[in-house]
TrEMBL record:
Protein keywords: ATP-binding, Cell cycle, Cell division, Cell shape, Cell wall biogenesis/degradation, Cytoplasm, Ligase, Magnesium, Nucleotide-binding, Peptidoglycan synthesis
GO BP, sorted A to Z: cell division; cell wall organization; peptidoglycan biosynthetic process; regulation of cell shape
Main location: cytoplasm
Pfam families with a match to the protein in the record: Mur_ligase (PF01225), Mur_ligase_C (PF02875), Mur_ligase_M (PF08245)
Record protein name field: UDP-N-acetylmuramoyl-L-alanyl-D-glutamate--2,6-diaminopimelate ligase
Amino acid sequence: MKLSDLLKTIQPVQVIGNTSMEITGVNIDSRLIGTGHLFMAMRGTQTDGHAYIPAAIDKGAVAVLCEELPEELRTGITYIQVKDSEDAVGKVATTFYGDPTSKMELVGVTGTNGKTTTATLLYNTFRYFGYKVGLVSTVCNYIDDQPVPTEHTTPDPITLNRLLGKMADSGCKYAFMEVSSHSIAQKRISGLKFAGGVFTNLTRDHLDYHKTVENYLKAKKKFFDELPKGAFSLTNLDDKNGLVMTQNSRSKIYTYSLRSLSDFKGKILESHFEGMLLDFNNHELAVRFIGKFNAYNLLAVFGTAILLGKKEEDVLVALSTLHPVTGRFDTIRSPKGFTAIVDYAHTPDALVNVLNAIHGVLEGKGKVITVVGAGGNRDKGKRPIMAKESARLSDRVIITSDNPRFEEPQDIINDMLAGLDKDDMQKTISITDRREAIKTACMLAQPGDVILVAGKGHENYQEIKGVKHHFDDKEILNEIMC
């Protein structure tokens, strides 16, 4: 593609050099630059891409996009100066990969909890309808039925547009994408065309990056602010921030709720460990999911599918066939008569949701044992809150290691224990080794009890000092229970 064509969607401050040259690739990582590429310098949270301009040119870059021009301008290299490289990178990447989101219906799902489940269930629902569908999610990306491993909830703009381009080329008519607060703040989704956006909920998370809840909220809200006039917004009316999210959106706004009058109204009629009986818009529906939080997720899927043109009756049939997402309220039955649940819950609110769901089914007829930790090098403020909520809603608590990353596991555990009072401490123990913690929970459990192993869900590793060691909560539970 000619450089002049690549620049049509952005407004450079200035261009120095020839723009009629052919560009064979675009990248933000100087190590991946090849002959004839455009290197785009971004200021990241760890490094500044401007420092790698010389290296990119040495590797074959013929053009450079940057916010600040280097002191030395090399002969034969075209320099494109822009005001905001984060915004420009997404738009250029979209153009280079053929504007993939103009060829399919892309729906973004954002919120603190429920993004993965909602996006994945939408993907499965539309595959059930017979469409080729794409998925961008925390667990795995999919181009129809082909899995593509994932590193981040929302990839960088180059990886993301390359992935979406492959989806469009393979004939995907729909794509569903988790939209993280980081990706919105860092403009990784710049240039993409969304047919709609879904808001699940907002609770405390990622304050290590956003610093305040208000900044976190603003990042999420920005997604809806920038949706085009022809798109739809589907927001959770029961969340106090539900209508805040959409108050400045040009999109058509719809609501879903389990408590109030809304466009898509739901109600839980019955709940068991095998599933729930729901009422959606006065239609009964049996599903294989547990908990109020999953009722919200399914209601969001129901509403989104209808807003994308599907008939209510057809959507209800599709929802009845769906299975829970890996690592989300994953239930395992023990031969000893107790139940173990593996869940990704790694925020205070997510923990409360899962524990409340367990109590809703148990109805006081069994004890709850919670195994929980907190990730290292992340928001420390949520650690004591997670411990406190676990103690409040559990009969026994085992505080253990999660992904300590570059922190000492015991330091993280101490931060969590600081949230507990004397009564809480009497039913709490700490075991640094996560496998031993899970094993201890299984030894304590009696027939009819429920063990919740929270925090890692689908993850099959434990990250310690920068190294990912194989570790799978569900795998370990199955080994111990046999």
